[in-house]
Write a structure and sequence with these properties.
Blueprint (H helix, E strand, L loop, with lengths): L1 H8 L19 E3 L5 E3 L4 H5 L13 H4 L4 H17 L22 H12 L7 H34 L11 H9 L1 H39 L10 H15 L9 H24 L16 H17 L7 H6 L10 H30 L8 H9 L5 H38 L5 H21 L7 H24 L6 H30 L11
Helix pairs in contact: 5-10, 5-13, 6-11, 6-13, 6-17, 7-8, 7-17, 8-9, 8-15, 8-16, 8-17, 9-15, 9-16, 10-13, 10-14, 10-15, 11-17, 11-18, 15-16, 17-18
InterPro entries: AA_transpt_TM
GO biological process, one term: amino acid transport
Main location: membrane
Length: 529
């Protein structure tokens, strides 16, 4: 009897423990312009009423459960926990379902590895031995190692900050900058370097891809070719047309196959270039002493420009949040887990490409390295020693890599175009509007490349101007969003690292401008025929 009375006195709500979880909005799917389905947030009326709206688990409350027997309660509570784990707890912007970056959210760790590898390895690796020619062995390897681990840490920061605020995903670099620095200041600080990095890289890829296509044709055709060859500008136009055709793929997830091709070709031609260089006999007058210039100021500026080339070798941070935005995210399976898993694999492979190219290239050519980089050195020293088929294959792989890299670096610009259109019209872009934006962007880059043909030679200046995106801003964002204890080690470390990145950015930009002016804007990545 005593035991029975205790059971009767116990409140009904104590018979079962229901964890307190935030109320969430349901996420019905809508059809996007490309035919994919994407989640859509709840209507604004529910939010305006001060409630989160009805959810599939809102009826499972203690009051509802009280008249039901214990076995049924356990079933319903388990179902509630499952639905809350699977359901997306993030507030979703309906406009994101119409934009290329967030239109499809079925990415995974494999896609993250492909995209990061495609964005992280490219033509900029071929000019690293040029930087070693001015820095020498010790400072060259030291600067490359420090830059690699520094940018790997800032990449981890960006991955963690993607969902730093509960219920909010920062799908783009500029959005995270606005959250950290404020609406207006964030746009001013992040918009120019990210757009400059995306559009400037796309223009440089058109120049390099067109010139490489010309070299490939001349290598394959040989002296027996009787047809009238295309001019360099015409090859630029051919390459641009191919880029525009491939750019019709609708969103970032849809180019995962292209990113895989770009990653494979980048690894292959990077390995071929340094293996072919090391396997040949070195020039007799080779020296490994850093290049000396007549004056101290000239030497200092050349060293700064070389460090800017090293910084430019590590690009792609302006795409990290965009790549992570293509992944689904729940409480049980947050997006940062597959993103970081794919990024770690990608950057191990990136290190296996960059370090051998830099060290092997400098060992093979020393300070005789031409300003155009490894392909120029192969052409200048071993054009008769290396079989024509291998040279042609190397050039073709570079073309494939440039075509795929153009797509991933242009996707943030496509996203900006379509965001402006959808915000004004409140409807998704049609296929024709989307195609028109991409054709327009491709030919704008083509005309810039024709008007500024020296753009591909100023890697040091590009590295200096875009360095804050990779090395400085993520450190500031960590402090402003995570808010570590003031004057703690983390507070000092991130502020110091960020300001050091800003100082390097100014110094490398000055060195890049000096190098550009001193060379008379005549440097080329590839030797003109």
């Amino acid at each position: 009897m005593q035991r029975g009375s205790e059971m009767e006195e116990r409140p009904e709500t104590e018979l079962i423990s229901i964890p307190a979880t935030p109320r969430t909005t349901s996420t019905p799917e809508i059809l996007t312009p490309s035919g994919l389905r994407s989640p859509k947030s709840a209507p604004k009326s529910a939010a305006a009423a001060g409630t989160a709206g009805w959810t599939p688990t809102s009826f499972i409350s203690p009051r509802f459960l009280s008249p039901i027997g214990t076995p049924m309660k356990r079933v319903l509570v388990n179902m509630k926990g499952y639905l809350e784990e699977v359901g997306h707890l993030t507030k979703l912007n309906p406009q994101d379902a119409w934009l290329p970056i967030t239109e499809s959210r079925n990415g995974n760790a494999h896609y993250a590895a492909f995209h990061n590898l495609n964005a992280g390895v490219g033509f900029q690796a071929l000019v690293l031995p040029v930087a070693f020619a001015f820095l020498g062995w010790s400072w060259g390897i030291l600067s490359l190692t420090i830059a690699y681990f520094w940018q790997l840490y800032t990449l981890w920061i960006l991955v963690q900050l993607h969902e730093a605020v509960p219920g909010k995903r920062y799908n783009r670099y500029v959005e995270l900058a606005q959250a950290a620095f404020g609406e207006r200041l964030g746009v001013w600080l992040a918009l120019f370097p990210t757009v400059y990095l995306s559009a400037g890289t796309a223009t440089a890829l058109i120049l390099i891809g067109g010139e490489t296509m010309k070299l490939f044709f001349e290598t394959v055709c040989g002296p027996q070719c009787t047809s009238d060859p295309l001019t360099t500008v015409e090859w630029y136009l051919v390459f641009t047309s191919l880029c525009i055709v491939l750019s019709q793929l609708p969103n970032l997830n849809s180019i995962a196959g292209l990113s895989l091709i770009g990653a494979i070709t980048a690894i292959t031609y990077s390995t071929m270039v340094w293996v072919l260089s090391v396997s040949q006999q070195r020039p007799p007058s080779i020296s490994y002493e850093p290049l000396s210039l007549p004056s101290f100021s000239a030497s200092a500026f050349s060293v700064l420009n070389a460090l800017g080339i090293v910084a430019f070798a590590f690009r792609g941070h302006n795409l990290a949040l965009e790549i992570q935005a293509t992944m689904p995210s729940t409480i049980k399976h947050p997006a940062h887990v597959p993103m970081w898993r794919g990024a770690k694999v990608a950057y191990v492979l990136i290190a296996m490409c960059l370090f051998p190219v830099a060290i092997g290239g400098f060992w093979a050519y020393g300070n005789l390295m031409p300003s155009g980089g490894m392909l120029n050195a192969l052409f200048a020293f071993h054009s008769r020693d290396i079989p024509r088929g291998l040279l042609a294959m190397t050039f073709l792989l570079v073309v494939f890599n440039c075509l795929s890299s153009f797509q991933i670096y242009s996707m943030p610009v496509f996203d900006s175009f379509e965001a402006g259109y959808t915000s004004r019209t409140n409807r998704p872009c049609s296929i024709w509007v989307r195609s028109g934006f991409r054709v327009f962007y491709g030919f704008v880059n083509f005309f810039i490349g024709v008007a500024l043909p020296f753009l591909s030679s100023i890697a040091g200046l590009l590295g200096g101007l875009t360095l804050p995106v990779t090395f400085a801003y993520p450190c500031f964002m960590w402090v402003l969003i995570k808010k570590p204890s003031k004057f703690s080690f983390s507070w000092y470390f991130h502020w110091g690292l960020g300001w050091l990145g800003i100082a390097f950015s100014l110094a490398f930009s000055i060195g890049g401008i000096w190098s550009m002016v001193n060379s008379g804007l005549k440097l080329k990545f590839f030797k003109p025929s």
